Amino acid sequence: MKLIMRRWFLLFCLCFVASGLLATTPFSEEKVDPTKPVTGLVGSDAAVKAPEKTEFPVEGTIEVDSALRLREYPWGPVTGLFGSGTKVTVIGAEGDFYKVQVNGQTGYMHKNFVSIAGAPASQTEPDYPGDTRSGGSLPKPGSAGSTGDDTGSTGPVASKPSVIGQTQGDGTIAGALTWAHDQMPGGSCKGVNRNNGKRSSDSKCWSGWCLAFVGTSYGRNFPQLCAPSAIQAYYNCRDAGKISANHNPPAGAVMFTDKTSTNPYGHIFIATGEKAANGEPIIITTTSTVIKKMTLSQVIGSTHYLGWAMP
Length: 311
What we know:
Layout: H1 2-22, E1 58-62, E2 67-71, E3 78-83, E4 87-94, E5 97-102, E6 105-110, E7 114-116, H2 173-182, E8 192-193, E9 198-199, H3 210-217, H4 230-239, E10 254-257, E11 267-275, E12 281-286, E13 291-295, H5 296-300, E14 305-309
Antiparallel strand pairs: 1-4, 1-7, 2-3, 4-5, 5-6, 8-9, 10-11, 10-14, 11-12, 12-13
């Protein structure tokens, strides 16, 4: 009997010790300070997440190899350049940009190059729409005469991100202008010229194919542009009563110059709705190598300007 009691006592002691071991490392529950991040818990729900909403204003620091552009609005005109290490006050956020105050100026800087507490700069090159990589800008959404309703109003038209990276435009004015910008250096350059099968990234894609470029920007939905040449497209627009001969084209207008002794086909290009400092219209046109923005007089040169038409 004593032997049996002794065995039960030993078994009880072993169970007591085992329970103590199970209550300690590595299976014990540790108290976590919710104000501190938890490390070593990748993918675990136990990890403490950073606050989803940043309270502004906060101090930030530019981190960039060369200089960071300050823009009037996201992907808008450049208003200043600031070097790495420059301190900024971040007063808000809009999409991929911070709204900042720096050296007495207010504007927007890309989040990838501005570090704030809890959100270090990734310094990853973003996808640049249009010609923004080279310092260009996109039309300001909601600007005067730019409601995106495709009425052809004077002034820049709101951009239409859905056509960026597409093979052609979607048949709207906003789509045509956004797509045309996206074929410029720094854009996705994924537009396709069905006549030769080349993409915009190929320097010969649109060389000699101005009508194909403008027609593709409108998704090939502009009936008068279904023609064998730019000059014939002009005749089609003229016969349809669409031609205006003034030098003040609205955004999205297709514009024409006459044929010459060396060019029997004429030329066609698109009005952006933007104006140069002297008030001259700025257009997007094909060249022998790339899609470019130019002033109207630069495109016309010594050729005869015929006018513009809206789809």
